[in-house]
Amino acid sequence: MFALNDIEEYLLQMDDLEKAYRIWYLENPEAYEQPVRSWEEFRSRFDSPIQFSPPTIVKDYLFEKEFFQNKSRQVDCFKNVRYCPPFLHKLEFIKIVYLLQGTALFYLNRRRYEMQEGNFCIVAPGVEQAVFAKGPKGVAVNILVRASTFTRTYSTLLMEQGVLADFFWHMAYTDFQNQVLFFRAKPDGKMRQTVLRLFYEVQMEPKRSSLVEESYVCILLGEGIRRHGEELIVLEGLDGSVYRIPEILRDITGHLQDITLEQLSQKWGMKQNAIRHLLKMETGYSFEHLRAELRLQRAAELLEETEDSIETVMNAVGYYDSAAFYRNFKSKYHVTPQVYRDDRRTKET
Question: Class of 240-348 per CATH?
């Protein structure tokens, strides 16, 4: 295994893509001052012609399948290409940008924010944004996480209190747009080591492990909010409904055995129809549908994490009819509870 200093030195080296973009930057730095939406727009900023197609992917929307070709992988990690113009685009997945060294620019809806060494941000799916790392020492690391499986993989983060958990709750169950968590953190050796270890695991480790990768991301997010929560700013602002919905969802998750709409109504001082309307408006789902989804998600977690019998798991999440539990579980996960448990254990091994 490389020493962490060796990994950092590797990231500092200019690769062929960066060398190609650097040529155009030195020729016309002004072409990089404003974000662009297409390669054609970028080419139009030069007096003399540049190559017809870009050296890297340039699209207005990037899908999970383009970065997670192996269905068992939940995480990807790679260096942001230095001198690559700031192309505005949206993502189907979650992106964490960690500035390992130097400076970079982060664009959100054409507004520009400067990133310093140690800063990092968390970008929700569907947010139009861009990152521009210039200079030989401007090293930014991109960490991608599947949004489609986030609630299962990082359920422990959802049960925490605070802005980070609320951010992920709202992202998972609402039409979440234009929200970015930006940490103006100072250089932090522990966070830096976690990022470098994650990069090594994804890019260099011969026996790459999904479990290890997911654990590093969980540590990074958990340590980030614990060590730098006071340095967090929310770009584009959150309104009050963002906080109410995560708390209501957390109440449902914490009382899956017996939670009812009446209990939520009493706790929140709202009429049952008002809560039902709020959930439907913010998430697109009814209370009954959300409760059923959260019960099955929790059952899947218990099957994977514990040795409890299937009957015990079933009762723990509020199912007392085994036929209904097996039918609904198979409808969601396409296998029986026992097969799901066996498959997950096999993959971890």
Answer: mainly alpha
